[in-house]
């Protein structure tokens, strides 16, 4: 029986834009967070580029690196949402930097000696004006699974505009029957799995 307590979600907005600018990928991340709220999940959105995160593959690159503070939020979360735009058919460089920093978790453990990201669920939201959403979702979820996150059924939601189009998701209007429906399904499976893992964590190896 899934646990009934309120869970925590963290959306890492991987837009190339600062927090002073509107972001379609962050909008989708916020919509995922709103959908999760219907399933006893609360949380926050962090715009990654605003935190002075250094390139590297350790938990702390020193010299004012902003990753340790963000990492604490990841550790406190039950569900991690990576919200990224597509650029040249790839996840944004910011998303790739986040994955590189999470690579450090391969050698980190919790207080039970288990991998640090076990019992955490990961999902992805993707927007772009070109094809490539399936590729981006696959690339990001595979990396997150490698470091210990659990991926739920239908763990990706996306919107892509017409090839060579100029319309962003934030300007495209509501998409309740497509992207909106996918977001609702993602929220159901992610919340259910996260509640189940809280109630019945993975055993120590």
From TrEMBL:
<dbReference type="InterPro" id="IPR005025">
    <property type="entry name" value="FMN_Rdtase-like_dom"/>
</dbReference>
<protein>
    <submittedName>
        <fullName>Multimeric flavodoxin WrbA</fullName>
    </submittedName>
</protein>
<dbReference type="GO" id="GO:0016491">
    <property type="term" value="F:oxidoreductase activity"/>
</dbReference>
<dbReference type="Pfam" id="PF03358">
    <property type="entry name" value="FMN_red"/>
</dbReference>
<feature type="domain" description="NADPH-dependent FMN reductase-like">
    <location>
        <begin position="10"/>
        <end position="161"/>
    </location>
</feature>
<dbReference type="InterPro" id="IPR029039">
    <property type="entry name" value="Flavoprotein-like_sf"/>
</dbReference>
